[in-house]
């Protein structure tokens, strides 16, 4: 156990009354029994992971669980957003039932956002709800999708259309797992990190502008700060509005545009974070058109996205109508009014449903294509 | 509107804080706009019903909704417990998405327990949760399944294995709908009514003993009293323990045995209430074996079940091992201990996990087969 005592783990809390839970952030925390075992609901443990992650971290996780008198099973799904379907969730349910697991079992999601969303939804609906733990292994999952209880799968007609709000019992962020993450996925995660600066915290945005190179080089201290600050903001927003009746919607900056891009291009061809990057650029440009941002602000947003190696143009093959038809079905749109997250200033977002159709159409027509 | 003022509607409340909701009970309440319209979340309404119920009540429900500037769609599923599958729920989701319904839509379940369970689960998981209203049309749904927020579907490996706790916004019980209910289903509903007397209220049990003939003849005053008292008990138990951590389990008297019967016989061949009837007889006999009930108590339970035209024997083709293998997977069983609801006395149930395997086995071997 002496190795554990050398760990430097920072713990935040998501405050949701009886459903409050910790986020443990540290290099090597995956090996720490004390940060994992207390959150198991019973003896039955189902690890849900995928073919890309299992070779790197499944054995390590099982090692951490070993010797605790647990019944451990695993489901290894294919990799990628295209697998984020009800059929994959059914595979998890089938495995749980084949193992005879009862409602006191625990699911552990070991992987990126897709694994976390599917394992979380599987947990939410298995025997009307069982415990689950998030061990996110991508930057995007570590700073965004593993925190806050949004779970679900895609439907051919739209992203995340089937799902539940179901909070994990703990989120365990081992930043060492980023060392096996492809650079493209690291950039995709940085899109959500940048988002927190844009919507909530101008000084964090400034810090990011100065530290993007360090983040892309996986400097441990920089990565740790970026994850902690992102999780703090997410936890604060979620504690205030768990089921997205109000302020939580701010976290969707760029997402309505981004979801349209993902759906049009086919899930997985653009990574979620890439689509959000382009989408944030579109929201930024629309905020400029509304008169709230300066040309310098727009340039600043473009510069930080480019520094993170994220797209700042829309797909070449996507017409204005391709956006509009998909944006109308987006969950965030109340009845027929188009509700968008925009920027009143850098570091301060707002929810607006008063964008004129003509103004939006002009943006969609003129926005640069890549 | 003068016809509405002639209605005699009694309203109970299920107390769950922000998620509290009313149960409106009355003859003809299906036609009452004031008992339905206030519970819609927005303009989009999806009615979920089945082929047996639609010819009787769909037009009446649409008439009640007419003129309120709503966008009304419907999904008409096949009838029967065999349809209580994820595939049926997917049909509901597909219809919602095809209609472009957003997260401010409302699902209305018009039908028996199967429709209510499926529509409720569809609502729980559509866009991470939308509103739904229960309009139960069978006695079983009116006194039990429509109240309390248990929703879900069956899996080939077990009943109700996939689902959610998701409370309706209102339960609307029109007792006139019982006039089209087959006698066999009326009896199945009486099993749950008798259950409330057995687990909770000896004086209600005595009232039932005196009024079973009137109930089977659909005497309005008797039916109204039985439904109201059943819903009162259910609401009291659910308010105390929404997610079945403790006392709510008492509502499962006879259900662990009953689920084994349903699963072994194939869902729908034995009605749920019939299997619960036989299961309550088994739990009663086991309570006698434990020394808590007298032979006279056992005879009394048998007599009231027989008076309700419910089975008091197990299926002829079911061996002790057929029960045991299915009971172990039952949701109500914590790890490997078999947890059963038994009767300390008539009118008072208890949760016990200390039944000796040998005693249970002896019961399962010797219990009469039909």
Automatic annotation (TrEMBL), chains A, B:
UniProt-listed NCBIfam families: aroB (TIGR01357)
Pathway: Metabolic intermediate biosynthesis; chorismate biosynthesis; chorismate from D-erythrose 4-phosphate and phosphoenolpyruvate: step 2/7
Name this polypeptide is given: 3-dehydroquinate synthase
Membrane-crossing segments per the record: none
Function in brief: Catalyzes the conversion of 3-deoxy-D-arabino-heptulosonate 7-phosphate (DAHP) to dehydroquinate (DHQ).
InterPro entries, per the entry: Dehydroquinate_synthase, DHQ_synth_AroB, DHQ_synth_fam, DHQS/DOIS_N, DHQS_C
Underlying gene: aroB
Superkingdom of source: Bacteria
């Amino acid at each position: 156990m002496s190795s554990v005592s050398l760990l430097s783990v920072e713990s935040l809390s998501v405050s949701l009354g009886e459903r409050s839970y910790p986020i443990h952030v540290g290099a090597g925390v995956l090996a720490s029994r004390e940060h994992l075992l207390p959150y198991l609901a019973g003896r039955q443990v189902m690890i849900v992971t995928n073919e890309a992650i299992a070779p790197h971290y499944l054995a390590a996780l099982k090692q951490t669980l070993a010797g605790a008198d647990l019944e451990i099973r695993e489901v290894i799904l294919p990799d990628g957003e295209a697998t984020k379907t009800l059929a994959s969730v059914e595979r998890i349910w089938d495995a749980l039932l084949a193992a005879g697991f009862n409602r006191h079992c625990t699911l552990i999601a070991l992987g990126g956002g897709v694994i976390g969303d599917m394992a979380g939804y599987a947990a939410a609906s298995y025997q009307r709800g069982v415990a689950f733990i998030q061990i996110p292994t991508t930057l995007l999952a570590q700073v965004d999708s593993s925190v806050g209880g949004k779970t679900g799968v895609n439907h051919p007609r739209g992203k995340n259309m089937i799902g539940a709000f179901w909070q994990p019992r703990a989120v365990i962020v081992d930043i060492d797992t980023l060392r096996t993450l492809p650079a493209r996925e690291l950039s995709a995660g940085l899109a959500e990190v940048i988002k927190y600066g844009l919507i909530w915290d101008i000084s964090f945005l400034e810090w990011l502008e100065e530290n993007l190179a360090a983040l892309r080089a996986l400097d441990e201290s920089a990565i740790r700060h970026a994850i902690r600050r992102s999780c703090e903001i997410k936890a604060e927003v979620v504690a205030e509005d768990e089921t997205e009746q109000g302020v939580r919607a701010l976290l969707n900056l760029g997402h309505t545009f981004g979801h349209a891009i993902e759906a049009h291009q086919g899930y997985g061809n653009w990574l979620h974070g890439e689509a959000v990057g382009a989408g944030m650029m579109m929201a930024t440009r629309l905020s400029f058109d509304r008169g709230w941002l300066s040309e310098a602000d727009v340039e600043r947003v473009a510069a930080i996205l480019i520094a993170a190696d994220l797209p700042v143009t829309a797909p070449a093959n996507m017409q204005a109508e391709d956006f509009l038809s998909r944006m109308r079905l987006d969950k965030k749109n109340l009845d027929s009014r188009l509700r968008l997250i925009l920027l009143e200033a850098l570091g301060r977002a707002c929810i607006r449903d008063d964008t004129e159709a003509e103004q939006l159409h002009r943006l969609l027509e003129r926005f640069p294509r890549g």
